[in-house]
Amino acid sequence: MTINDMDFKQLLKQQLPALIQEDVEVRDLLVRAISSYFAGSLETESHFDLVLGEIRRDREEQSRKWDENKRELELDRQEQARKWDENKRELELDRQEQARKWDEQTGKWNENRQEFDRVIAAIDRMSRKHDIAISGLGSRWGLCSESSFRNGLKAILEESFGVEVLNIVEYDDQGIVFGRPDQVELDLIIRNGELIICEIKSSVSKADLYTFYRKVDFYQQQHQRQATRKIVISPMVHPSANSIASKLGIEIYSSSEDVSAELPPSPSL
Hints:
This protein is of the alpha/beta class. It has helices at residues 5-22, 24-34, 41-160, 206-223, 239-248, and strands at 164-172, 182-191, 194-200, 229-233, 251-253.
């Protein structure tokens, strides 16, 4: 009975597992037969161990590097924190120094301002004091000048021109001149029956002219006599007073040399 290839293969598949287990020679023969096609277990295990070793060493190296990087990062973080704290301290010290300088400068400014205020107040007091003194001096000088000029004019007119010069003081009990009872002072120049009423002042304003005009009117009513001329002599005349003088028929002269000897025409009010 002949066994073909197909039957042999089928029979081998059926019997080989049992033979490998039961027959050592068959098992060794099979191992030698297939050893050239598959690596031995020891070689395979050795190669596997090598791979695992490489993987383990690489993992350890990566772990070492990671730990080293962590340490470096931690050291860098600590260094940055140290520098930040140092900068904060320096900034705080600088802020405190700037605040101290600012307070010191503010104190100096306040002292200077107070000193400046004291100086200004002193200057203001001196200014007021000088203004009062100058005003009083001007008033006294004006009164003295008026009196001196009046006395000099009286002497010249009476001695050189034969006229009569009178300084009169009368009481206005009805308040015609000043709006209340008061004394009224006038200078009269009488020449050949003519009456010239004169006012000598250190300075003249519009109000002074109106007052002088009321003085003249008061005298004329009291004595029932009309003045031929009304003259005001003053070295200082306010510009606005000239037009008022023309309307009131008052002659204004800044110097005695300006006074004309001719009688002006009577003004019409």
